[in-house]
Amino acid sequence: MYQRILVPVDGSQPANKALAAALQMAKDFNGRVRLIHVVDELAGLSGYDLYGGYPGDLLELIRENGHKILDDAMATAQAAGVEADKVLSDNFGERLGEAVVDAAKRWNADLIVIGTHGRRGIGRVLLGSGAEQIIRLAPVPVLVVRSPESGKAAKAGT
């Protein structure tokens, strides 16, 4: 059914839960997984000229962190016995969701699996915009794996 599963990873609990779900699906359907980490941390640094005055050392550190996240996810995929590869993507001039959807199109993914926080209300609006954009723009089905919200609400099951 699903042979080419794209999984955005960032090292967070929701992304790790999505990875686990994607790996199980890949095993069940004899598929493969492509792991993508989008270098999006730069979006909050709007005071810098990304191409001219941006400190190269900081950019390199951000990319190194992305490679580590991808390496950890690859190790998880290999331990699960799932064929996988990895891509580090810079999203200069592009939103996170657009970068993921573009990667899915280029790779001919037939499923995108994303993790999201189990937040509601304003927390969902502020922290779920990347997931919502992927769902809205994706040319293929998107499986959203919800990670329970921390605190009392998660314990209460709300």
TrEMBL record:
Keywords: Cytoplasm. InterPro entries: Rossmann-like_a/b/a_fold, Universal_stress_UspA, UspA. It is found in: Cytoplasm. It comes from the Bacteria. It comes from Rhodoferax sediminis. One of its GO terms (cellular component) is cytoplasm. Belongs to the universal stress protein A family. The keyword Translocase does not apply. This is Universal stress protein.
